[in-house]
């Protein structure tokens, strides 16, 4: 299963960006879709995640500013980021987990990461 992320860029503090991540391949079902980020000098952390039941969870630092959503038909997850702050700077990675179909038709669990997209916020 491959993930293609897009939407990062440079924005002024208080501005907005929208990230997208599309999953493709032999997907049978998707359990969860999420966004993580790695800030300079820090470990990768969970930003937001949404389950198959459309239950979102957010890091405390982004609650009220970021919104995660998914388009099930397109196997795509979005992250709407509003009121961006310099502390939101980092490389954002999408992650998708679920079940895929193997060559023989057997289903296997998978967890795939996107390639990362840079978000930079100027103060």
Notable traits:
123 residues; mainly beta; seven-stranded mixed beta sheet; four-stranded antiparallel beta sheet; 11 strands
Describe the structure.
- It is a single chain.
- This protein has strands spanning 2-6, 9-12, 17-24, 27-38, 44-51, 56-58, 66-71, 76-81, 90-101, 107-113, 117-122.
- It is elongated and about 55 Å long.
- The mean pLDDT is 96.
- The protein is mostly beta strands and 123 residues long.
- Strands 2, 4, 5, 6, 9, 10 and 11 form a seven-stranded mixed β-sheet that branches. The protein has a four-stranded antiparallel β-sheet with strand order 1-3-8-7, with no helix packed on it.
- Helices cover 0% and strands 63% of the residues.
- Strand 4 and strand 5 (44-51) form a beta hairpin.
- It contains no helices and eleven strands.
Radius of gyration, taken over Cα atoms and rounded to an integer in Å = 15 Å
Oligomer: single chain
Compute the number of helices. Answer: 0
Helical residue percent band: under 10%
Mean pLDDT across the residues is: 96
Q: So what's the overall shape?
A: elongated
Order of helices and strands: EEEEEEEEEEE
Assess the beta-strand content as a share of residues.
Answer: over 45%
| DSSP, total strands | 11
Unreliable runs, pLDDT <50, ≥5 residues?
A: none
Structural class label: mainly beta
| End-to-end Cα distance | 37 Å
Major sheet, described briefly? 7 strands, mixed
């Amino acid at each position: 299963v491959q993930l293609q992320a897009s939407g990062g860029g440079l924005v002024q503090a208080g501005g907005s960006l929208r990230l997208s991540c599309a999953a493709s391949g032999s997907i049978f079902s998707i359990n969860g879709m999420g966004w993580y980020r790695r800030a300079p000098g820090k470990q990768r952390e969970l930003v937001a995640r949404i389950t198959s039941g459309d239950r979102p969870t957010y890091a405390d630092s982004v609650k009220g500013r970021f919104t995660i959503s998914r388009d099930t038909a397109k196997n795509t997850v979005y992250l709407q980021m509003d009121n961006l702050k310099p502390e939101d700077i980092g490389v954002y990675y999408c992650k998708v987990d679920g079940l895929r179909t193997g060559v023989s038709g057997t289903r296997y669990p998978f967890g795939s990461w996107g390639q990362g997209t840079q978000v930079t916020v100027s103060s």
